[in-house]
Write a structure and sequence with these properties.
The complex is a heterodimer of chains A (249) and B (333). Chain A is mainly α and 249 residues long. Chain A has 10 helices and no strands. Chain A is elongated, with a radius of gyration of 22 Å. Chain A has one domain: MetI-like (MetI-like fold, Orthogonal Bundle). Chain B is of the alpha/beta class and 333 residues long. Chain B folds into 2 domains: 195 residues, Periplasmic binding protein-like II (D-Maltodextrin-Binding Protein, domain 2, 3-Layer(aba) Sandwich), CATH 3.40.190.10; 99 residues, Periplasmic binding protein-like II (D-Maltodextrin-Binding Protein, domain 2), CATH 3.40.190. Helices cover 42% and strands 15% of the residues of chain B. Chain B has 13 helices and 10 strands. In chain B, the strands form 3 sheets. Chain B has a 5-stranded mixed β-sheet, sandwiched between helices. A 3-stranded antiparallel β-sheet of chain B has the order 8-5-9. In chain B, strand 6, helix 6 and strand 7 form a beta-alpha-beta unit. Chain B is globular. The chains are: A mainly alpha (249), B alpha/beta (333). Chains A and B meet through helix 4 and helix 9 of A and helix 4 and helix 5 of B.
């Protein structure tokens, strides 16, 4: 699972790079527009260590943001699954929060909370929370009739059991959504860093853009991609372990 | 059968329309089509470029020029190489970085004789009359930007290290300056400098500016660039373009035409009050044409050489690029 994620990323990255280099040589572009292999290699040697630390910094924020989003989406999903007034109110409120584009909200967040850790975390959580919420709401609102029917008729269906049944029956979907949301959390953190933060790989990409240095951006993209692939592979692996443990019970 | 034919004709029409949209026919006037990519959005900093376009200076020279706004994600030099633009505006650091990576870019005119990038600070704060006065202050810089290079050069010149000052990472939001978290803040003197200054003044805090060129730092700003191929193979087009452009700049900065020019600017920059546009125009005039006898567009060779030296000293480039070889003042004068 893990190695498949990594080699799939390597194939995609290599294809992208080959395409860029193909364009470079076909149109006889200078290293300023698209850096050559030697230039990329030199940049790689120069910045990898620093950029790797930046990616880890970003990833830490992204993971915490993702955990927050999962908790938030889980909570709202469980409350919002009910067909009561409160359930529909929670759903509408959750959708409305997401109606504003994050790039419009980000400057306000940075003014209020500064350009440090909390702002990055909040933006990461906001970006990855909505798709999670949609999936959790979808799963939690859908009864597993043949199983729930038995417990309901015997009067033993409490809300905790209902949630457990629905989560267990959809564990595959939940794992996929959680793994997928890692990409969004990472993207959210990078966007936040790009807009206003003073740390992380998004901030380094911004500086590289100021200097029109595509080589640095290519190195950053590689490190982001490989780290994210490993993290997603790990999430999928954990999902599979949880599933196995539940099934064995 | 009939259905197939109708469908075939439909497809042919669709393909023709797509091709027409992708490759529109040349204008009936027969004027040469050119694209001019600016460095920043339409504002007072590009007043001459806008004036040349609006007052049809290019058309009068037999050219069909599309003036496109720039922005942080735009790079005129890259567009020259990719054939998406024939002329553009770039700052000296962009030109030098591009040359260091083998880009065949040349400079045909220098628009700003004084770099508009300066630092704003409160008049109530101790004045900066010598570089040593920077010691102990919190200085705003954009990491990776021109202002970082300029400030580091100034600090080095004053024998100050990063331990002697506090460097603060700056973005588009000025709140840290308004909140006094930062003592001196980088601004473009002719645009941001005006409205931040006005805002501070309204709050009872008059401001002043720290000007790097007063301390001998000549870091060249916006200049007109084209590709070496264009300059060598189509010199007449380059000459026509530049003559029309500089005519636009001369007229736009003519004090007698101020109210007309402000009116034009208001069309492009609806959010800035007329009074501020007039002030921006006045400051732009001083930066583009500091002395009345000097023609607009003159390339300050020494300033370019100094800019390269600064970048080399700051390790922005790994080896000298001899920027003077890319300066082509002959097209304008």
């Amino acid at each position: 699972m893990l190695h498949r994620r990594v080699y799939q990323f390597l194939i995609v990255y290599s294809l992208g790079l080959a395409l860029l280099l193909g364009i470079k040589y076909l149109l006889e572009l200078s290293n300023y527009v698209i850096p050559g292999p030697m230039e990329i290699w030199m940049t790689c040697r120069e910045v990898t260590r620093r950029y790797f630390a930046d990616v880890m910094d970003t990833m830490t924020v992204a993971i915490i943001g993702q955990v927050l989003s999962i908790c938030m989406a889980g909570f709202i999903g469980i409350v919002g699954r009910q067909t009561t007034w409160l359930g529909s109110f929670v759903k509408v409120a959750a959708y409305n929060v997401q109606a504003y584009p994050i790039v419009a909200l980000a400057p306000i967040i940075f003014i209020l909370l500064g350009d440090g850790f909390i702002s990055r975390l909040l933006i990461a959580a906001m970006i990855c929370y909505f798709p999670l919420l949609l999936s959790v709401l979808g799963i939690m609102s859908e009864p597993v009739r043949d199983i729930e029917h038995f417990y309901r008729n015997t009067g033993r269906l409490r809300w905790q059991l209902e949630v457990k049944i629905r989560a267990f029956e959809n564990i595959g979907k939940l794992t996929t959504v959680v793994a997928g949301s890692a990409t969004l959390a990472m993207a959210g953190t990078i966007v936040a860093e790009f807009i206003a933060a003073n740390a992380g790989i998004g901030y380094s990409i911004r500086i590289a853009l100021y200097q029109s240095d595509l080589g640095k951006i290519l190195v950053a993209l590689f490190l982001i991609g490989i780290s994210l692939s490993i993290y997603q592979g790990l999430l999928e692996w954990i999902g599979a372990m949880v599933r196995k443990a539940w099934e064995s019970q | 059968m009939r259905n197939h034919r109708v469908r075939g004709i439909g497809w042919a029409v669709a393909v023709c329309l797509t091709l027409l949209a992708a490759f529109p026919p040349a204008a009936a006037t027969g004027a040469e089509k050119l694209t001019y990519r600016l460095k920043w959005l339409f504002n007072t900093s590009v007043v001459g470029d806008l004036y040349a376009d609006v007052r049809k200076k290019f058309a009068a020279a037999g050219l069909d020029v599309t003036v496109k706004p720039g922005g942080p994600e735009r790079d005129a030099i890259k567009e020259l190489e990719l054939g998406q633009a024939q002329f553009g505006v770039a700052s000296a650091d962009q030109v030098i970085r591009a040359m260091a990576k083998g880009s065949p870019v040349v400079v045909i005119a220098q628009l700003f004789q004084i770099n508009p990038l300066q630092w704003i600070y409160r008049q109530a704060d101790p004045p900066i009359t010598r570089l040593e006065d920077l010691r102990g202050r919190t200085i705003g810089i954009t990491y990776g930007g021109n202002d970082e290079t300029i400030m580091r050069t100034l600090l080095a010149k004053a024998n100050l290290t990063e331990q002697d000052v506090r460097l603060f990472s700056v973005r588009y939001d000025y709140t840290p300056f308004f909140q006094k978290k930062v003592d001196i803040w980088p601004v473009y003197r002719n645009t941001q400098g005006i409205f931040i200054g006005q805002k501070m003044m309204d709050g009872g805090e008059p401001v002043q500016f720290f000007i790097p060129s007063d301390y001998g730092i000549q870091f060249v700003a916006n200049s007109v660039v084209t590709s070496r191929q264009m300059a060598e193979e189509r010199p007449e087009t380059v000459r026509q373009f530049l003559t029309a452009l500089l005519k636009g700049w001369e007229e736009a900065l003519d004090p007698a035409k101020s109210s007309l020019v402000v009116e034009m600017l208001q069309e492009f920059d609806k959010d800035t009050p007329r009074k501020q546009l007039a002030e921006q125009l006045e400051i732009t005039r001083r930066l583009v044409k500091p002395q009345s006898g000097v023609a607009i567009g003159v390339i300050d060779r020494d300033a370019w050489i100094q800019t390269e030296k600064i970048m080399y000293d700051q390790k922005q480039i790994v080896k000298p690029v001899h920027v003077e070889t890319a300066l082509m003042p002959g097209f304008a004068f």
